[in-house]
Amino acid sequence: MAMISNLDLIRRVPLFSMLTTDQAQSIADSVVKRRFKRGELIVEQGTKSNALFILLNGRARVLTADQRGREVILAVLQSGDYVGEMSLIDNEPHSASVRAEVQTDMLVLGRMEFARCLPESSSLAYGILRGLVARLRNADRQIESLALLDVYGRVARTLLDMAEDEKGIKIIRGKVSRQDMAKVVGASREMVSRVMKDLEERGVIETLENGSVVIKERLTHD
């Protein structure tokens, strides 16, 4: 790998295939090479690494885990794939971890250098990028819920995601459709209704006359 220039490496990455020579050279001057050992974390869920990681060779897994340590694999990355862009675009922590399956070589591009490749933050294109990142994060959470949580946990997480905070009170404005929630959590309407009824009987939630739902006690999805 030492005999190949950064520019040659950049040209091999599909992400940069449309760059002009000057743009590619600018990126090549900014990236650094890094090698990860088998089993080493490249990015960690819930943290910020402030960099874009581009696989040159090797293989890595994108995975998420619950508080019990149970994991679900979201994707397997190969040469030319990249990670970290979501966090760089919306400045939020990583929604999943990435771990090297085998010895893996990467190009690492820092936040400032990556930002120069983006459209202006006030532009429509940047707004669309942030919207896409938000959808991807929601998709990751949905996959995690379906794989790691039981129906009770998925209903709890969905209620928390839907709730708004008003002066310390979490409330879901408007009627909560059991049918729609069933489609979100991947369960039957009857099962969702039983979970909601149980939460109401335990005093965890309260359904108001207008159909809005108030979360009265700490609702967990562990």
From TrEMBL:
Annotated protein name in UniProt: Crp/Fnr family transcriptional regulator
Domain named HTH crp-type: residues: 149-218
Keyword Nucleus part of the UniProt annotation: no
Source domain of life: Bacteria
Domain Cyclic nucleotide-binding: 15-135
Cross-referenced CDD domains: CAP_ED, HTH_CRP
Presence of the UniProt keyword Transcription regulation in the record: yes
Keywords, ordered alphabetically: DNA-binding, Transcription, Transcription regulation
InterPro entries (UniProt xref): cNMP-bd_dom (IPR000595), cNMP-bd_dom_sf (IPR018490), Env_Response_Regulators (IPR050397), HTH_CRP (IPR012318), RmlC-like_jellyroll (IPR014710), Tscrpt_reg_HTH_Crp-type_CS (IPR018335), WH-like_DNA-bd_sf (IPR036388), WH_DNA-bd_sf (IPR036390)
Pfam families, sorted: cNMP_binding (PF00027), HTH_Crp_2 (PF13545)
PROSITE patterns per UniProt: CNMP_BINDING_3, HTH_CRP_1, HTH_CRP_2
